[in-house]
Amino acid sequence: MNSAGIYIHIPFCQYICNYCDYFTTEKKAGNIPHFVIMLLREIELTAGNFDHHDWRIDSIYLGGGSPALLLPKDLEIILNKLRGHFPFSQFPEITLEINPGENSFADLKLFKEMGINRLSIGFQSLNPKFLNILTRTHNPDDCIALYENAREAGIENISIDMLYNIPGQSVTQWLNDLKTVVEMQPDHIAMYSLTAEKGTPFYTDIQNGDLSLPDAAIEGKMYKQGSQYLRDCRFTQYEVSHFAKPGKECRHNLHYWKRDPNLAFGPSAHGFDGEKRYWNVASLEKYGEILSQNNLPIQNTEILSAENIVNEIVMNGLRTNLGVPTSCFDNIDDISIQKWESYLEIENGSLLLKPEYFHLADEITADLMVG
Ligand code: SF4
Fold it and tell me: Residue 272: which of 257, 282, 261, 258 has the closest Cα?
């Protein structure tokens, strides 16, 4: 039996943040109902061709975008459609991404009732000045209110997303934010370095000199001290940017890193059927047009070469505490392993990067790549 995940990309946001390079679009009255109809059609068409009966879906991730902007009844229809068409495990993890200030307590109770059992909340910062730089529309009080309401509504598994490396942010300010988050006792924390992605207004501001990112040494300190702090607070660092209380690792993320199958729905969503990767068109109009002709909105597919598969296993293994299975060792250049020997360890037959060196994961992976 293969465990598998489902990702649904819901691209609507109240407002597009200046640094965001995901496929998103501003929520407008009228475009959501049509999107939901098309998404349900995509699920039905995919189910019609589905022949992986040895799969058990044990995670659904509703991402975006801001998927919690959909009406709760629409989210419930989508979840029920999935339940009716695919083989699920008994207790799937169902995650909803949600932003502070956008949902009522009544919404949260409905999310819980429809089976959503994990929230990924985008705090990003608890400092009003930095939220303003990020053009986020919420304030720190909205973060606290959403977290408390979610707990009161009975959501037992909560992850908080935080950003560091924000223009003007000091290491102390970053660590203070993390400390406040830890005191709230979430089950999971993801911390990401803010980057200026080409094509975003934030990138233009950086290019024009209107804003500047902290220098690389400060960014490095933020990462190292932040990670160490979370590990000291008994969070397991199970990936470069992800920290979990025991047993609260995100099952859906683990599917990606273990290269498990993952069905994907919605514009720009990326899936993997165990052999082939595929991705949908990144356009709401094209997505709707293609589906209205009863075709799947897949833009392209890729079958990885044997060499690329090994490279993916090395990359995912070294970014996580899963490590690289010994079965791959024949394919890895021994000299490269020797070069990084003191940063690596072998445990239960897998090659692992010691957590204190996770910040070097990209560099070491590049050295161990084959081909
Ligand atoms: S809320 Fe999230 S997905 Fe939406 S624009 Fe902002 S960063 Fe992007």
Answer: 261
Mutation pick for ligand 1 pocket among 9, 12, 22, 143 (CB with most ligand atoms within 8 Å): 22
The model's pTM is 0.96
Q: Is the CB of 169 under 6 A from ligand 1?
A: no
With helix as H, strand as E and coil as C, how does 12-73 read? EECCCCCCCCCCCEECCCCHHHHHHHHHHHHHHHHHHCCCCCCEEEEEEEEEECCHHHCCHH
The DSSP secondary-structure symbol of 204 reads H
Of 17, 13, 180, the closest CA to residue 102 belongs to 13
Chain segment 141-152, per-residue pLDDT in tens: 999 999 999 999
In a domain, 43, yes or no: yes
Cis peptide before 65 (omega within 30 of 0): yes
DSSP string of 84-130? HHS-EEEEEEEEEEE-TTS--HHHHHHHHHTT--EEEEEEE-S-HHH
Give the number of the atom of ligand 1 that is nearest the alpha carbon of residue 13: 4
Final residue belonging to a domain, choices 257, 276, 292: 257
Owning domain of residue 355: 306-368
Where does residue 247 fall: left (phi above 0), alpha (psi -120 to 50 degrees), or beta otherwise?
left
Chain centre to alpha carbon of residue 224: 21
What pLDDT, in 10s, does the model give residues 256-293? 999 999 999 999 999 999 899 999 999 999 999 999 99
Is the shortest distance between the CB of 68 and ligand 1 below 6 Å?
no
Of 192, 227, 257, which closes a domain? 257
Q: 188 in a domain, yes or no?
A: yes
Residue 268 Cβ < 6 Å to ligand 1: no
